[in-house]
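re: ur question from earlier - yeah i can do the single chain one, its not a big deal. heres the input i used so u can compare w yours
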Amino acid sequence: MSDSKNLSSAVLAFIVGACMVFSPATAHDIVPGAPQSKPIVIRNATLHLGNGTTIENGSILFEDGLISEVGASVRLPESAQVIEGAGKHVYPGLIDAYTDLGLREITAVDVTIDNVERGELNPNVRSWVAFNPDSELIPVGRSGGVMLAHVVPGGRSLQGQSGVMQLDGWSYQDMLLEGPVGLCVNWESVVPRGGDSKEKAKRYDEQIQELDDLFERARRYGESIAAEESVATDVRLESLLPVINGERPVFVEADRLGAIESAIAFFTSRQIPMVICGGADAMHCVEHLTAHDIPVILVATYRLPRRRSDPVDALYSLPSKLREAGVRFAIAGEGSGYPGGASNIRNLPYHAGVAVAHGLPREEAVRAITQSAAEILGVADRVGTLTAKRHATLIVVDGDVLESETRVIDAYVQGRKVDLGNKHKQLYRKYEQLP
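and the output i got, formated as tokens:
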């Protein structure tokens, strides 16, 4: 009995100790913004609408969390808070279109990682349910101007359903803007690389057949439901119905040419809408992308080329080349499965900025991390541009948002003013006092 009590005490002590060690590393204490209580007018600022146009010395009015007016001048409600914007720039809140923010915190600490479910076929997994609203990485991202994130699950093959999260709120329910957005598939794991060619071909054929069987079962399941037949509920098959019916896209993680071409062949033959995520080799199959109007989310353009034979600026110049070829695209940061991942979400504007230095017009780069991202994710009716009736999710900065020296001065999510403090700034202030 005594040994049992001692063991229980030891287990309890371990749990309490673990909580004391890991809680500060995985949760922030910043209070979410309060709902907008009065109209706000920002005037005499440079407005970057997110659709490729700007308004010099413009003004924007937002009320009850929605943008009311944008232009050279706007009405001034009697109770409005007026913010002088001279010398400042206003942008839509930036959107990271492919990330595991809120699902993965510290790679070396297992209890902070919740981006992968067991098994290879998990179409029913919902990323936003596991989203950590108190992640220390969220305030860091907001300080870089990122106000929205397309949060995707990780894993092999069918990873699960993704959601668009607003980066301010008390819980994942508060922060969810749209979910599910689509089905996430890791096609890089379907198309193997290296090794014995016969074994590779065999494994590829097995995985394609497995996926084909699952989609066919989902199609028959949907037909049975439509015919009002009595069928046992299957959450995996049910989660696939919006995809096979063409109501939601498949977000296909594919960087290599072989993976991109294989994915296009598989999903277009089944009339399933798709988005290529990663897309390093997208220019090598641009004719397929344009023929099927397949958009691309370019993940981490600020990285080295895939091949030794490629020019060093192969990925830097890719956005400009895709634009010239007529391919719809957005730019994401160092997303799910990429080195750095969500810990570098603050660098999103610089991935767009390097594309400007290699041929992409500046306002088109802004569009790639605002309106274009919102359109691909199906949320452009609410966010992505500074236009009337859209959410008042925006940032105020002291310069060009694509430049590293620019600071975010103010930020709003649906009209709620967001606290721009974060762990990085806290440590800077602390060690600034070091004797």
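Residues 285 and 350 are 26 Å apart (CA to CA). not sure if urs matches, ping me
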